[in-house]
Amino acid sequence: MKGRPFVLDCSILAKALVPESRSDEARAVLGLGRCLMAPDLLPIELANVLWKKVQRGVLTAEEARGAHQGIAALAPIRILPSAPYHPRALDLALEFGRSFYGALYLAVAETENALFVTADEKLVNALVATPLGGRVHWLGAGSPP
Asked: Is residue 67 part of a domain?
């Protein structure tokens, strides 16, 4: 593996698995040869996103099942137990007014000296002028450093 590790959130995998805006960029991030990691919340969030896409008629139930099973085929992602990161995530959520879910990914990135890569532009914009600004990268800003 080369370069700084990436912490990926659900938005990256959802875009890589289901064709939509920025899907090509999401797949490109997965192919950069970086160490990829995420808290154990990731597969749960992804299943919920896929369920929502079925409810909206974007995917069939079978397509959603296939996409969820396709996670492992995308790239090797190290899934980390989230409990050790909970205290820091709560601190970050409270300090920066972000959801605990998003802060959990940030806590992993901070603790593991990784870059948090997300398609959540609002989250990145909210953090850009904070000490965490250097830890987050918006998918739409081009290839991560």
From this structure: yes
**Residue 28: domain span:** 6-141
Q: Which of 45, 35, 91, 46 is nearest to 69 (CA)?
A: 46
Residue 1 within a domain? no
* Strand stretches in 74-134, DSSP E: 77-80, 115-118
pTM of the model: 0.92
- The residues, any chain, with a CB within 8 Å of residue 88's CB and separated by 6 or more, are 107, 110, 111
CATH code of 64's domain: 3.40.50.1010
Would 50 be classed as within a structural domain? Answer: yes
Q: Could you identify the residue written with the tokens 């659900």?
A: 10
pLDDT tens by residue, 35-53? 999 999 999 999 999 999 9
> Tokens for 22?
């920025």
For residues 25, 46, 120, 56, the Cα torsion angle rounded to the nearest 10 degrees is 100
